[in-house]
Amino acid sequence: MKILLMGPPGAGKGSQSAKLVKDYELTNISTGEMFREAARNNEPLGIEAMKYIDQGDLVSDEITNEIVRKRLLKPDAERCFLLDGYPRTVSQAQALDAMLLSMKSKLTAVINITVDKEAILERMVGRRVCKSCGLSYHLKFKPPKKEGVCDACGGELYQRVDDQPESVRNRLDIYERKTKPIVDYYAGHGILKNVNGMQTFENVYKDIKEALGEVK
Ligand code: AP5
Hints:
The longest helix is centred in the C-terminal third of the chain and has 15 residues, at 165-179. This protein starts with a strand and ends with a helix. The protein has a single domain, classed as Rossmann fold (3-Layer(aba) Sandwich), CATH 3.40.50. It has a 5-stranded parallel sheet with strand order 2-3-1-4-8. The chain has helices at 13-24, 31-40, 44-53, 61-72, 90-102, 117-125, 165-179, 181-189, 201-213, and strands at residues 2-6, 27-30, 81-84, 109-114, 127-130, 136-138, 157-158, 192-196. It is globular, with a radius of gyration of 17 Å. The protein has 9 helices and 8 strands.
C-alpha cells in the first residue's frame, strides 16, 4: 500500500497517520516531521527549513523533493509507505510522479481529509506536541492525562511556533493557493478519496479505512 494523506493544516493528518502506520505497517514519511527532526538534531537542513516553517511559509520544492527522493530510496519504503504533507505544490506532485515512475512504483490511494476553515484555527491554537516523541495532543479535544506531559513517553509538551495565529493564517493562505490545486491533480488521476475530517478522531479513522478498503 502506497498512500498519500493530504488536507489543510490541522486537518488531522498527523493524528490519523500515527494509527494508520501502526495498523497497516506502513513506513511514515512526513516532510514536516523530517524538517523538525533535522532542526532538533541541529542539522543545517533543519535550521534552514525552520526559518520558513516558523513563519508558515513552504520550504523550497528543490530541498523538499530531494529529501523525499532520498527517503523513498531506503529499503523500508520499497513495499509500503504513507506520505504525510508531501507533495504540497503541483510541481512537487509532478516530481513525485517522476520519482515513483523511475522506481517502477505508483501511489495506491490519495486520501484528502476535508475540514471547515473555522475549525482549523481552534485545532491549531489548542495543539500541543511532545518534544521527545512528537505525539500530538489538543487542550480541548485530546488533552493529556497530566497537564504538559506526554501520556506515551513522559516528554514535555510544547506549542509549535507555526501554531501562532499569524503563522496559521499564512499557512492557510498558502494551502489555498498552492496545495489545494493538487486535489484536482489527483482527482484527474482517479485515485482521490475525500474523507470528512469534521468528525471524532475514531469516525475519521473509520472512514479512511473504508476508503482504503475500496482501493483496487
Ligand atoms: P506539517 O508538519 O506537515 O504541518 P501541516 O500540514 O500544516 O499539518 P499539521 O501538522 O499542522 O496538522 P495535521 O493535519 O497533521 O493535524 P494534527 O493531526 O496535528 O508541516 C509543517 C511545515 O513544514 C509547513 O508549514 C512547511 O513550512 C513545511 N513543509 C512540510 N512539508 C512541506 C512540503 N512538502 N513542501 C514545503 N514545505 C513543507 O491535528 C491538529 C490538531 O487538531 C491536534 O491538536 C489534534 O489533536 C486536533 N485534531 C485532529 N483531528 C481532530 C478531530 N477529528 N477532532 C478534534 N480535534 C482533532
